Amino acid sequence: MGDLMVQIDSRMVLLKDCSWSMWAKCGCMVAVSMAVVGDRIHATEEQAHKNHTPRKRDRDREIRNGYRWELITMARYRNEIAAQWECEQHRKPTA
């Protein structure tokens, strides 16, 4: 396998440097899955969703309930999201 490239925010990045994040309608991140693990490649939203949620009826329910998948770089995850999966509505106040 060659190094697969994807475009995120007008930048070309290696797919292996990305992950798929699952977001609830409210804005909370509820799951994250690596785009490349060994020889397994999840290059599309559908592939990531099927990997995370194997049963079709469960995937259909998640879609109906407003869940969505987004490809993000691991750098963005580390720098912007890692410790703050909750949306503004669900974020607990800091002491």
Topology of helices and strands:
Elements: E1 5-8, E2 11-14, E3 18-23, E4 29-34, E5 36-37, E6 40-41, H1 45-52, H2 56-64, E7 68-73, H3 74-81
Antiparallel strand pairs: 1-2, 3-4, 3-7, 5-6
Question: What proportion of the residues is helical, as a percent range?
Answer: 25-40%
The radius of gyration computed from the alpha-carbon positions, rounded to a whole number of angstroms, is: 14 Å
In N-to-C order, the SSE pattern is: EEEEEEHHEH
Q: Into which percentage range does the β-strand content fall?
A: 25-35%
Number of strands: 7
Ends distance: 48 Å
**Which structural class is indicated by helix and strand composition?**
alpha+beta
Characterize the quaternary organization of these chains.
single chain
Number of helices: 3
Q: Mean of residue pLDDT?
A: 89
Low-confidence stretches: none
| Shape label | globular
Give me the side-by-side strand order of the main sheet.
Answer: 4-3-7
* Sheet with the most strands, sense and barrel status: 3 strands, antiparallel
Can you offer a commentary on this structure?
- With 95 residues, this protein is α+β, with helices and mostly antiparallel strands.
- It has 3 helices and 7 strands.
- The protein has helices at 45-52, 56-64, 74-81; strands at 5-8, 11-14, 18-23, 29-34, 36-37, 40-41, 68-73.
- The strands form 3 sheets. The chain has a 3-stranded antiparallel beta sheet.
